[in-house]
Amino acid sequence: MAQALRGSLSQPPAPSGRQRRRQARVWLAALPTLVIVGPVLPGLYWALAPSLDLSVWRALWSDAQWPLALRTTLVSAGLGSVLGMALAAGLATMLYPGSRWLAMQRRLPLMLSVPHAAFAVGLLFLIAPSGWLARAVTPLLGWGDPPAWTTVQDPLGLSLALALGLKESWFLLWVLVAVLGEQTVHRHMVVARSLGYNRAQTWQRVLWPQLLPRLGWPLAAVLAYGLSVVDMAVVLGPSTPPTLAVLIWQWLTDPDPAMQARGAAASLVLLGLFLLIAVGARWTWHGLVRRAAYPDGARQPASNPSRWGLHQPLFLVGYAVVAVLLLWSLADTWFFPALLPDALSLQTWVQADWAPIGTTLWLAAAATLLCLPAALVWLEWGPQRYNAVLYLPLIIPSLPLVAAQYAALLRVPADGTAPGLLWSHLLWVLPYMVLTLIGPYRAFDRRLMTTARALGQTPLGACLRVKWPTLLKPILAALAVGFSVSVAQYLPTLFAGGGRFATVTTEAVALSAGGNRRVLAAQALLQIVLPLLGFGLAALLSQWAGRRRQGLR
């Protein structure tokens, strides 16, 4: 009997019915996410397995385009990331806290709604040798023809770096707005200023050492996007040879298996570059922290803040990009060096092909509506410790993941089909929606759910009747974000769609290679209008819900 008692004590207790139900809810909540993310894992093996042959690597390193493409990628991605962080850090240092910071914060959603490809097209029309800026200075310089300058598609990718830096600075500012909204940061700044440190010293010695580690993941996302961007590189980057991401895209879509294997090997190099730069940046940061662990405590007098801040020209660039796209879409004839079109016409819009708009609308709407319940059940019952896995598509180069998706679709087979194309978008829409909802979800008052359960509601019923209606505004914002993310997808649409589905993004990038500027401007402008309509509809529904339901304002 004693031996049997010892054996029973050594066995773990059987899970209770409540524990089994909780585990079942966790698995059911993780099931939609597993359907979206799971096939990518074997897809990575199928896509990258051809690169395991040593002859593939020899062919890659002996390719004449390889060294220049690698150099252009490092220059454009590195300078773009540094410029974006420098602009965001400079604006935060100069403007926070104050009325100008709040005014800039109100303008950010408009700038963030401009997709990358549309911004690249608008910047092309702005800084090209025959662009709007050259036309503006022509009366002063007396040009009769566009200057023979290489302001876009330069060999080093400097114009691409400029576009990346400007566009990503708005994203980093949006992240800083969320971080600086916390009361702890404001209190630390008040204490430092009361000790006699000026604004620059306060940021350098108190705030940035706390904020930069929290910006690690957003900065990794910026670097990963710069390394693997294709749509902006096609518009603004060099073509002979192109950037490494464009070169990989060309190899992966080549019908020759040897070229596809070379593209898989180059994808691994791209992923290795990202990891190498990320580890080097982290090591450099730790070295700087150790070196500046004991500041000297010297105070410097405060300077008068400038009335003309850096944010004014930064936002003027964004407004000018939208304005020049609108003018080109309405232009009848517009020859250099005229600053404005000779005549305006709606002919481009009347003759526009509306099929890409329909494809974009149904694809983006279906992707967001499918990802919303997946995001809600994941945040409510899913294993939160695996959130980092969900965020991987945002912080690693996209080309290996897109190639993995395509390899998985080939095995089904579902490439070139509407369900396959829709599934390819879910991998990118879901992380952004979860990222938008996770903050309001964590700030939700759990006592409301406890009260609902005490009144007899099931866990799902409490969510349907209490929690999710209360979080209606963040849910609508997540829908708008997911819609805009789907509209901007280029590589998943090309690979999974097999060239059979045209969206406004794919059309804009295709036309940038030499198509009609008016049609190109119209397609790029539609890229901006569609996300703006999504955000506007979300705002209207939020106001309507706020008027009808007290407490949701």
Task: Walk me through the structure.
With 553 residues, this protein is an all-alpha fold. It starts with a helix and ends in a 5-residue tail after the last helix. It is globular, with a radius of gyration of 26 Å. The model has no long low-confidence stretch (mean pLDDT 85). It has helices spanning 2-10, 17-37, 40-48, 54-62, 66-95, 99-112, 116-127, 132-141, 158-180, 183-194, 199-214, 216-228, 231-236, 244-252, 257-291, 311-330, 347-350, 355-381, 387-390, 392-395, 398-411, 418-443, 446-454, 459-470, 472-487, 491-497, 504-511, 517-548; strands at residues 331-333, 343-344. It has a two-stranded antiparallel sheet with strand order 1-2. It has 28 helices and two strands. α2 packs antiparallel against α18, α5 (66-95) runs parallel beside α9 (158-180) and α9 (158-180) packs antiparallel against α12 (216-228).
Overall body shape: globular
Which class of secondary structure composition applies to the elements? mainly alpha
Low-confidence stretches: none
Find the count of extended strands (DSSP E, 2+ residues): 2
Adjacency order of strands in the biggest sheet = 1-2
User: In oligomeric terms, what are we looking at?
Assistant: single chain
* Range of helix content: over 70%
Provide mean pLDDT, rounded: 85
Task: Round the Cα radius of gyration to an integer and report it.
Answer: 26 Å
